[in-house]
Hints:
By secondary structure, this protein is of the alpha/beta class. The chain is about 40% helix and about 15% strand. It folds into 4 domains: about 90 residues, Glutaredoxin (3-Layer(aba) Sandwich), CATH 3.40.30.10; about 200 residues, Rossmann fold (3-Layer(aba) Sandwich), CATH 3.40.50; about 80 residues, Ubiquitin-like (UB roll) (Roll), CATH 3.10.20.600; about 90 residues, NADH-ubiquinone oxidoreductase 51kDa subunit, iron-sulphur binding domain (de novo design (two linked rop proteins)), CATH 1.20.1440. Strand 10 and strand 11 form a beta hairpin.
Amino acid sequence: MELSDLHDIAARERANRPPVEIRCCSAAGCVSSNSPAVLEELRGAVQSAGLQDRVKVAAVGCMRLCCQGPLVQTVPDGALYQKVTPESAPSIIAGLQGGQVTAERCDAAAPFFTQQASVVLENSGKIEPERIEAYIAVEGYHALHHVLREMTPAEVIQTITRSGLRGRGGAGYPTGVKWATVAKNPGERKYVVCNADEGDPGAFMNRSVLESDPHRVLEGMAIAGYAVGASQGYIYCRGEYPLAIERLQKAIKQANQRGLLGTDIFASPFDFRIDIRIGAGAFVCGEETALMASIMGGRGTPTPRPPYPAEKGLWEMPTLLNNVETFANVAAIIRRGPEWFAGIGTERSKGTKVFCLTGKVVNTGLVEVPLGTPLRRIVEDIGGGAPDGGTIKAVQTGGPSGGCIPAEFLDTPVDYESLAKLGSIMGSGGMIVMDQTTNMVDVARYFMEFCMDESCGKCVPCRAGTVQLHRLLSRILAAEAGPEDMQRLEALCQMVRDTSLCGLGQTAPNPTLSTIHYFRAEYEALLQKAGPGQRRRLPLVAATDNSR
Length: 548
């Protein structure tokens, strides 16, 4: 494969493109709303109308406004239809010939679409994820050819460093620094790992990228492998994402067949293989040491750090771990330059971020905005605010590791530093909106129950502490707790946070601590509601008790 071959594939793809394209979302959200049947009806209507030479029906990736799926768009006129049914789908084809369209129209000029930016999602909803030719036609694998032919590994790392890209998995560690650390550490072999074990409640950013643009992630991993000196990559994907796994498998097979993965890529001495490892649904395997243990065939439990994976990771060799969205930014940075990427966002938080906007908000789905965008713009302008005339009470960011931000701070810019000052984190991108009907103590209990159930049980503070915290929160909600229980709750939160082995336990108290800080009145109201006769002493659980 040469650059000229990529150009030839792209030219053929453009030449064979008919005047009209009907794009039907085939990501998991719309699939669950029966988009495969819609797709079949659209293709059947094209066939019946004899429009095969003028109209193409394409199964594309996520179109972002998930709450209105299935979504269908006609190109080039840009007409967008929502909640399309198999019965209304043929009318879209009839409309091309002057007939009446009964499918419900969606406003493509609404703020939900116009106020977003597109870097990671630039191809999502536009190309067919199961066809490598569609990716190549939008400059796919051009960045990989450029780095293999025009750049040294050190120059690639310098480019990523200058871009200011930070890890999108939650911690926000500078990507260029991580790559440089892996590159300089000696080892007979090195590995690149993509963390696709997305387990936060309300989060589906990584799943959508893998379902909509899988080759983008593969190309980013290959570039990373060249930069750090690795020849083997692994994608660790949770088993609950069967469609993402299926499309990854097809993408890897296609890339291997085209010589874009495997040996002597682009007639260079660079070899890079990518394999998939499927997780079994353990949230803790999103933690990097537990993830690596699972890849190696062991039980997915965390281990103390240091040593860090960059020094001793898979099979004691230097290992680079980044999440899906981080790798999805790489090819665009190489193509457009680090200065372009660094020009988006804020001084310390560069680029865009993909969020999953869910909860008590009108528009739920995928949102990509420049870092530094005010939270209010995301929730009220793009999200449409609370439904049914309600008011926003709080926004929870960062999943079980994050915090609840009250409405008074909606003008806060969404970046790593600003969210941390409010006691929350960006996390991988989950954003759950709560309205005036939400009980914040119940929210804290929900996330604590999640962490309690997902604890691997290896360390006592997390194994026993999350159980005690959940019981305390349950007693407060049931109006069976007293002031001393509130004191115990806060002290136990600090203990679990400070003494747990890994990030799961260390961050498990965050939703509780943030709700206590900002919504303490709701706790106190429940404490006052409990009369002395209603209070009961909390039975202690032994540290060795791993029952739920």
